[in-house]
């Protein structure tokens, strides 16, 4: 089994196409006998630096498990030629990841603190 973590950034002008892009990659993984162990939609976030004069983009995180190593090359080529995807990063991991990522944990903790503050006022 091969474990991969994929993060890709989608052009914010294509916000109506985000679900179609996500579904395409999910189907590609499932069609080739793989599965997604963790999927997180981080939403529209500020970029660290402008890319193609864009300051915000839509972030997606997927942890996938594959039997074949040639599929990851197909996914990478597809990410590279997709004009809606600004940047992507594929990392091979040693174990399967299922826990919530730090970004979503910190976001939920922040929202909990905000709701506690609002309740006390």
Structure, explained:
- The chain is α+β, with helices and mostly antiparallel strands and 121 residues long.
- It has one domain: 2-Layer Sandwich (Alpha-Beta Plaits), CATH 3.30.70.
- It contains three helices and four strands, in the order E-H-E-E-H-E-H.
- The chain has helices at residues 18-31, 70-81, 102-120; strands at 2-10, 35-51, 54-66, 85-93.
- It has a four-stranded antiparallel β-sheet, with helices on one face.
- Strand 2 and strand 3 form a beta hairpin.
- The chain is globular.
Summarize the structure.
The chain is an alpha+beta fold.
Q: What does the secondary structure layout of this molecule look like, with pairings?
A:
Blueprint: E1 2-10, H1 18-31, E2 35-51, E3 54-66, H2 70-81, E4 85-93, H3 102-120
Antiparallel strand pairs: 1-3, 1-4, 2-3
Which terms summarize this structure?
single chain; 121 residues; alpha+beta; Alpha-Beta Plaits; four-stranded antiparallel beta sheet; 3 helices; 4 strands
